[in-house]
Amino acid sequence: MKKDNSILLKQELPIAFKGSRDYIYASDVFSGLIDVLKNHGFNEIINIDFSVHNLSNVGIELIIYKNQLPSSIQDYFAQLRFESNGKTYFGIVKSIDKKITDRTNYDEQDIFENTEINKNDNSITLSNKYTSYSNLEAFTAMNKILLYSVRPDIKGQWLSVRLQLENYKDLYSKRENYKVVLKKIFSNKYAKSSLFNNDQKIGNLFFSLRK
Fold it and tell me: What is the mean pLDDT of residues 32-52?
């Protein structure tokens, strides 16, 4: 029997530019889609794999399908897979013809100044006294400065492109002893790091180099 690949959920995601940037942050997209999923009854969201395929500077919408993605779909900004109540769901984030007019204050340097880098094990920790910005924003900024610090020979702009989490709630729990460990850089273009909260690994964060 052919699976039903019809649309289960379709909704525009609220989005704004950060600081002086003119492109959408992957962390903002992820936070927005999690809010939408929770509002639609997805209380259990586990085994998450979220990836961004390119940059966007226009509005976006989330589309969740009943089963796997239809093979005809090719043009999308980001892709999502997760499990909820024993079922696997697939979704995409598409660009829409809508100009982004909102902008939020964001000082990445403020996060950098509250971190400590250990080049012996390629890790970075965040001061427990630091409470500004969301947990994912903190993790993203930590990983960025870690990459620039341990591999200054690699020239270009590191961008967040993929996030893997065992449970979305791990990312929204109380921030304690936040740590990022750089695991590997592939061909000087793609980096994988592990995310820790109070010595417990909660996921992986991947960055890609843009020259």
Answer: 95
Q: Say what percent of the chain tops pLDDT 90.
A: 85
Residue 26 contacts residue 70 (beta carbons within 8 Å): no
User: For 8-19, what is the mean pLDDT?
Assistant: 93
pLDDT surpassing 80 at residue 111: yes
Residue 164 is assigned to a structural domain of this protein: no
Total domains present in the chain: 2
Question: Looking at the domain assignment, is residue 1 inside a domain?
Answer: no
Q: What is the pLDDT of residue 43?
A: 86
How many CA atoms does the CB half-sphere of 186 hold within 13 Å?
Answer: 7
Helix 135-150 vs helix 26-39: angle between axes, to the nearest 10 degrees?
150
More confident residue, 186 or 6: 186
Take residue 21 and report the two structure tokens written for it: 């940037």
- Is residue 169 packed enough to be buried (19+ CB in 10 Å), middle (13-18) or exposed (0-12)? middle
Could you tell me if 41 and 22 lie in one domain? yes
Range of the domain at 53: 7-103
Q: What is the CATH number of the domain that holds 122?
A: 3.10.129
Q: CA separation (Å) from 3 to 65, 67, 72, 81, 91?
A: 11, 7, 15, 17, 15
Last residue in a domain, options 103, 122, 137 = 103
